Amino acid sequence: MKAFIQFLKKEFYHIFRDPRSLMILFAMPLVQLLLFGTVIKTEINDAEIAIWDKSRDISTQKLTNKILSSGYFKLAKIIQSEPEIDTEFRKGKIKLIIVFDYNFDKRLTNEGKASVQIIADASDPNNATILVNYVESIINDFLRVKNDMNIGLQPQMRMFYNEEMKSVYMFVPGLMAIILMLISAMMTSISLTKESELGSMEILLVSPLRPAQIILGKVLPYALLAFLDAIVIIRMGKNIFGVPIIGSRLLLFLETLFFIITALSLGIFISTITNSQLVAMMISAVALILPTILLSGFIFPIDNMPWILQFLSNIVPAKWFLIAIKNIMLKGLGLVVIWKETLVLLIMTVVLLVASIRRFKIRLE
Q: Are strands 73-78 and 113-121 parallel, antiparallel or unpaired?
């Protein structure tokens, strides 16, 4: 028994003196708890909406004030015509538009009913459903206040870019981002650190190959395989699940290739800061896969998150990739609109590649 206790003490000693073990045991659970606890929220606050009030009477004003004072919405735009609806949705800032019909108060008073149209950007169906439910709840509450009248409202729902509210429209782009990040970043970092861990990197160091050539030779197979996976995912999404590709297919494939290069750059950089496959896998899982799932807008709307997580989401490549490909696939937009997301990915790629090559040169010396 005494020998067992000594053995047990030794194991605890080895665990507590190893920073990697402590990170797995204590740091990772705390980080995941904080992330999931702050990211997973079903409520939405201050969602930006637009209103088209064709009637401009006392009832529409009261209902508008009630909607805006709920805390769920804030008015971002007053629109005046039908073409503005599509224009505002294409900009991507406004997620919901409320249209009050002509003679709203008169019809509500004299006929006992009036119509209001709720138009949502359903490229993110979960978010659209929540916003529409909020508006319907506020309208029902408005009717209860006016319970002395035999009146009713007729909300008409209209979902832009995803009329049937298919969740697969969101999951196909999101899963593509996760899979490409997994193949490109994680596998690249593990492959490069494997060379250092097994000692075969020394053979490469004495070869006539330059650092850039060594890196390119290691990552090019993963780039090709990742791009092939992307093509398969896009084709399956369209042919099996009916996910549309309204915009340019060439632009879609170029944007996907751009994201793969960014993910490869991340994997290369990770490989330059560690010589262990296990550590590279841990860093990839914690620093890449989890943020891709939680902070990219794939599952949880970024606008719902605390400001610090909204800020951190800007350094997650998948966020910009998802915005770009959803705009191409579902909205049919071109480079004129998604230039910002493309530029961000370009800057990330250049910074990561320069940092990786410099660190690789240091290791060569």
A: unpaired
**Residue 321 DSSP label:** H
Rounded CA-CA distance 54/77 in Å is 14
For the chain, the residue count is 365
Residue pair 107/60 in contact by the 8 Å Cβ criterion: no
Instruction: Strands of 56-208 (E only): list them.
Output: 73-78, 96-100, 113-121, 152-160
Angle in degrees, CA 120, 294, 86, rounded to 5: 20
Tokens of 233: 């995912």
What is the Cα–Cα distance from 221 to 232, expressed in whole angstroms?
Answer: 17
What dihedral angle (degrees, nearest 10) is formed by the CA atoms of 115, 117, 118, 119? Answer: 170
Q: In terms of DSSP bridges, do strands 113-121 and 96-100 run parallel, antiparallel, or are they unpaired?
A: antiparallel
The domain segmentation of the chain, as residue ranges, is 47-160, 168-364
d(CA 66, CA 141): 9
CB atoms within 10 A of CB 349: 19
Helix then strand then coil, % of the chain, to nearest 5: 70, 10, 20
The Cα 263–Cα 252 span in angstroms is: 17
pTM score: 0.76
Could you say which architecture CATH assigns to the domain 47-160? 3-Layer(aba) Sandwich (3.40)
- Which residue from 326, 340, 164 is spatially nearest to 247, judged by alpha carbons? 326
Q: What is the pLDDT along the chain (365 residues), one digit of tens a residue?
A: 666 566 456 556 655 676 765 565 556 555 655 555 555 555 677 788 999 988 888 888 888 898 888 888 888 888 888 888 888 888 888 889 999 888 888 887 777 777 888 889 888 887 888 888 888 888 888 777 665 455 556 677 777 787 777 777 888 888 888 888 877 887 777 777 776 666 655 565 555 666 666 666 667 777 888 888 888 888 888 888 888 889 899 999 999 999 999 998 888 888 888 777 777 777 777 777 778 888 888 877 787 777 888 888 899 999 999 999 999 998 888 898 899 999 999 999 999 888 877 776 555 45
173 vs 276: CA distance, rounded Å? 32
